[in-house]
Specification:
Length: 341
């Protein structure tokens, strides 16, 4: 299977184009615009790397259990959410199993399914609503909620309707933190449903250089997943940073209304320029601009990196993360210039 493309800056590409990487604001990776909390930076600076960390990241696992009000034995810390996806599928998908996915969606699902020897069963969604549904029984269903790249968010009944057609639901909740009045996906695990929920600490705390994610699963599934994981999934710096990030979570939650307001302003801006846009519940917007690669290149010349959605099967669409208030005016001007080029 071919390599999956991701967001993020490519310094070699920028230098080839004669662009200083330091001059580009990255809106292609869906990170929180406030950057990492200062406490996370301090935790990294003081982390003790002179001794082995806990082999199962116990301090962080216990803190995450408290955060989600769940038994820490139901928490498995991973080096990022992508690693969690591969770990979960390697543990729960048998060779030949049929695994539903809902494109356009995160490309690593199909790759992880193939790596497990299982078979991806696409149930494609269509613009502009991109509403996922499952019309046949499968072994596993892998669902991103809210979805990447569309931002489409499903209420619990819709998720449970998909789960009812699968032996196990794998729910990627990497962007759940960005949803206003989100239902708590951990309820599925607390209720003992055959469901696994995957979280990322990268997006909310804007620390992609640290790989910290985690899995929430009922005991029977958690035990199977844990057997597939080698010791020391993350190091002392990741554990320290994760603990500091949890302490800063309320501050991030308080900033959510402003982030959502700016997302609405971006959607309104694109609509005023005649571009279709999805109804996103996440911290990014997906917009139809005509020629996505050309739009991305034009935006780079204005100092912004956006995500060309061609690799999602959407060559006319781009995904743009919500910026800080300080960058919004300049971003809107760049968008208008590039749409009307």
């Amino acid at each position: 299977m071919s390599e999956v493309l991701h967001g993020g800056l490519d310094d070699r590409e920028l230098r080839t184009l004669g662009i200083d990487p330091a001059s580009v604001l990255d809106l292609s990776a869906n990170l929180h615009p406030d950057g990492p909390p200062p406490a996370v930076i301090e935790a990294l600076r003081t982390a003790n790397v002179s001794r082995y960390p806990s082999p199962d990241a116990a301090p962080l696992r216990e803190a995450l259990g408290a955060l989600h009000e769940i038994d820490p034995r139901c928490v498995i810390v991973t080096p990022g959410a992508s690693a969690a996806i591969y770990l979960v599928l390697s543990a729960l998908a048998a060779r030949g199993d049929r695994c539903a996915i809902f494109p356009p969606t995160f490309g690593e699902y199909a790759r992880a399914i193939a790596a497990a020897g299982a078979v991806a069963v696409p149930s494609a969604t269509k613009p502009p609503l991109f509403t996922p549904a499952l019309s046949e029984d499968v072994d596993l269903a892998v669902l991103c909620n809210p979805n990447n790249p569309t931002g489409r968010y499903l209420a619990r009944p819709a998720v449970e309707a998909i789960a009812a057609r699968a032996r196990v639901l794998v729910l990627d909740a990497a962007y759940e933190w960005a949803v206003e009045d989100a239902w708590d996906s951990t309820e599925l695990v607390r209720d003992g449903a055959p469901a696994v929920v995957i979280h990322s600490m990268t997006k909310l705390f804007a620390m992609p250089g640290l790989r910290v994610g985690y899995v929430l699963a009922p005991p029977s599934l958690a035990n199977r997943i844990r057997l597939r994981q080698p010791p020391w999934p993350v190091g002392a710096p990741e554990i320290a940073a994760g603990l500091a990030a949890i302490e800063a979570i309320e501050e991030r939650r308080h900033a959510l209304p402003d982030l959502q307001r700016r997302r609405g302003m971006l959607e309104t801006r694109f609509a005023a320029l005649g571009c279709r846009t999805t109804t996103s519940a996440a911290n990014f917007v997906l917009n139809e601009v005509g020629d996505a690669p050309a739009f991305r290149s034009a935006m780079l010349s204005h100092g912004f990196a956006v995500r060309d959605a061609t690799s999602f099967g959407l060559p006319a669409w781009v995904r743009i993360a919500v910026p800080s208030e300080a960058h919004l005016l300049r971003l809107n001007a760049a968008i208008e210039a590039c749409v009307r080029r």
